[in-house]
Amino acid sequence: WGDNRAKKDATMKRPYLSVVIPAYNEVKSLQKGVLNEVFDYLSEQKFTWEVLLVDDGSTDSTLRLLKNFAAKHQEFRVLAEPHRGKGGTVIAGVLKARGELVLFADMDQATPISEVEKFLPKFNEGYDIVIASRAGREGAPLVRKLMAYGFAVLRTLVLRLPYRDTQCGFKAFRKEAAQKIFKRMKIFTPIKSGFNEKHVSKGAGVTAGFDLEILYIARKLKLKVAEVKVDWHHKESERINPLRDSWEGLRDLIRVRVNALLGRYRL
Question: How do residues 2-26 score in pLDDT, each as one tens digit?
C-alpha cells in the first residue's frame, strides 16, 4: 500500500514541462508515428513532463488512436473537446496543463519537439514566453512565402508587433503567463475555464487571430517575449487555402486592432 501511495504522489507532482498537441482528423500523421517521436525525445530528458493530446471533435478515428497511445504511455493524457478550431482546442489544453512551462506544438511535427531545447534556456534568463521563428521556411511554396511577407508588413503597421514570425505553431509559456493572457482574449476565449463560464469561443478554423491576439496581449501586459529560430519543414495540408487564409488573416488583424482601440484588452 505504501509503495502504491508513493507512486501516486510522484505522478501527481507538477511536471516541469507540459506539451499540448491539438488534433483534428490527424490519422495520417498518427500513422506516421509522430507521437512515438515525441515520446522518444521526452523520455531522454532529465526534467519531468506530460503531454496533453487534445482532440478537436475529430470525425475520423483520431480520438480512438489517441486513447490507444495514451493507454500505453502514462505521461500522455487525452482531452476530448467539441469541435471549435485550433485556437479553442489549444486553450483547453493549456488551461488543463499542470506544468511550470507549457508548450503547444503541431501534431505533424513541422517543428520537431527537440527544438524545445532552444527554448528552455530563455526561461532561465527570465523570459515569460518563447516563440518559434521559421527561418527561411524551408520547403514552403513561393506563394506561401510571399503571403507571409505581406502579412508581416501589415502586422507591423497595424499592431506594431516587433516579431519576425507570429504564426508558427510552436510557442511556450510560463503557466502563469498563459493564464493572464487567455483570460483577456476576445477573438478566442476560454470555455468553462474557471475564468468566466459565459465566455464562448469563436472561430472554428486555424486563423491568424489566435497567435496575434496572444502576442498583442502579452505585449500590453509587458511580458518578456523571446523569439528563437527553429528548424521547420513545410508539411502539405489539405486545410491550407491561400485565398481563404489571407482573408481570414486580414480580418483577424483588423479585429484585434478594433478590440484594442475600444479598450477591450483590460490589464
Answer: 444 444 444 468 999 999 999 999 9
By the 8 A CB rule, do 213 and 188 touch? yes
The CATH fold assigned to 10-261 is Spore Coat Polysaccharide Biosynthesis Protein SpsA; Chain A (3.90.550)
Beta bridge partners, 80, equal 55
Q: Are 190 and 96 in contact (CB under 8 A)?
A: no
- 183, 196 Cβ separation under 8 angstroms: yes
Q: What is the pLDDT of residue 201?
A: 39
**DSSP state at residue 219:** H
Average of per-residue pLDDT across 216-232: 94
Contact 266, 184 (CB under 8 A): yes
Q: Are strands 129-134 and 76-81 parallel, antiparallel or unpaired?
A: unpaired
Residue 85's nearest CA partner among 66, 58, 112 is 58
Q: At what angle do helices 209-220 and 142-159 cross, to 10 degrees?
A: 30
What are the φ/ψ torsions at residue 61 (nearest 5 degrees)? -95, 20
